[in-house]
Specification:
single chain; 10-stranded mixed β-sheet; 15% strand; Nucleotide-diphossugar_trans; Glycosyltransferase family 2 protein
Length: 372
């Protein structure tokens, strides 16, 4: 397993412990200039031989380059059969709870080369601080429309797993690799990732600030308009991120309704096997009611804006198609006009030739009569 981490002190230890229990042989970790104690935790695991620790303090969103090098070294130095490129807030596991990752990959056909793994976002009540592994107990299965309504663009993108290859390239974000996928694991060997991206306001706001500033420092790397990190960074700068953070989490009433509808499904495998290092500092729902309501207003406005943007884009596409159709019609009309002109010219030429020939015959006849 490879991972590039920065300021993940609240979760990095349980994440490493989980994957060691799952049978990962080597964890190559690059610390990206952490200042919150993450580096010291990684050093302890490195001293025990559980982690190969590297350092890259540059903050310019160079994840793709760094992870690619770690993935290549996993094959060329450590002889990896399979490589999982992970983030510190991800817990990889088989869907079958009776299996471990080792069980899966020992029995998995390497001929498939690479495949995508579903990433499931975990949610629950918000908190001011804390790891929250015993609080974020629900698989977030809300529809895209429901996510848009609370200011979220979509669920997390699947991650790519690949066989060990010294020339592999991992694309920024770990979602794509250069090795083509030639199949998928059979259902009994399927794996998934439980993702904990918004563990607390303290962790989330720091991550948004770190990520946004790194993108601003990056050269040649332009995030899309819908990039979740940069959208949150703009909210942080506007002073609306806390309200947005609250609103994207379900209230107790939302949870009850979501559990009944299937939008939230309880998932306790991490909660029951892993300790949270940082204790939770809960959000007082009554005292934060105004912020929660503000988040609802912001989410509603952003949803309306995105809807209008989608409609405008669709109208633009229709206008573009119409313009092409008009252009093609004009071209066809032009061709028909040219054809008519050519036909008319040909007709006139033919008629002129006939007139000339007739005139010649008349002149010849007159000339003959004069000589009789």
């Amino acid at each position: 397993m490879t991972m590039m981490v920065r300021d993940e002190v609240d979760i990095i230890a349980p994440m490493i412990e989980h994957h060691l229990r799952q049978g990962v042989d080597v964890i190559i970790a690059t610390d990206n200039g952490s200042v919150d104690g993450t580096t010291e935790i990684l050093e302890k695991y490195a001293a025990r031989g559980h982690v190969v620790l590297r350092h890259d303090p540059v903050h310019r969103k160079q994840q793709g380059v760094v992870v690619t090098q770690m993935a290549r070294d996993a094959a060329s130095i450590y002889g990896a059969d399979w490589v999982l490129n992970a983030d510190a807030d991800e817990f990889w596991m088989p869907k079958d709870p009776a299996l471990t990752l080792r069980d899966v990959f020992v029995n998995l056909n390497k001929g498939i080369q690479s495949f995508l793994v579903e990433v499931v976002d975990m949610t629950g009540p918000p908190a001011l601080a804390g790891t929250g592994l015993q609080r974020l107990l629900y698989r977030d299965l809300r529809s895209t429309k429901e996510l848009n309504a609370v200011g979220l663009h979509s669920h997390s993108t699947p991650n790519a797993v690949h066989v060990g290859d010294p020339s592999v390239t991992v694309v920024q974000g770990n979602h794509l690799v250069s090795l083509a996928s030639l199949g998928t694991p059979p259902p009994e060997l399927a794996i998934e990732v439980l993702h904990f991206p918004w563990r607390s306001w303290a962790q989330f706001s720091r991550k948004v600030d770190n990520s946004g500033r790194a993108y601003l420092n990056a050269s040649g790397l332009t995030p899309s308009p819908n990039h979740h990190g940069m959208r949150d960074f703009h909210r942080l700068q506007d002073g609306t991120l806390f309200a947005s953070y609250l609103f994207r989490h379900p209230t107790s009433e939302d949870l009850a309704e979501g559990i009944a509808s299937g939008s939230y499904v309880e998932e306790r495998r991490i909660a029951d096997t892993t300790t949270s290092p940082a204790p939770d500092v809960p959000v007082d729902q009554e005292k934060s009611a105004r912020e929660w309501a503000f988040g609802k207003v912001i989410g509603g406005l952003e949803y309306r804006v995105r809807t209008l943007e989608t409609e405008v884009a669709a109208a633009g596409d229709r206008n573009a198609e119409l313009a092409v159709g008009i252009h093609e019609l004009e071209e066809r009309l032009g061709e028909e006009k040219v054809a008519r002109i050519r036909a008319q010219t040909t007709l006139e030429t033919t008629l002129n030739r006939r007139v000339v020939r007739a005139a010649d015959r008349i002149v010849h006849a007159v000339h003959s009569l004069r000589h009789r």
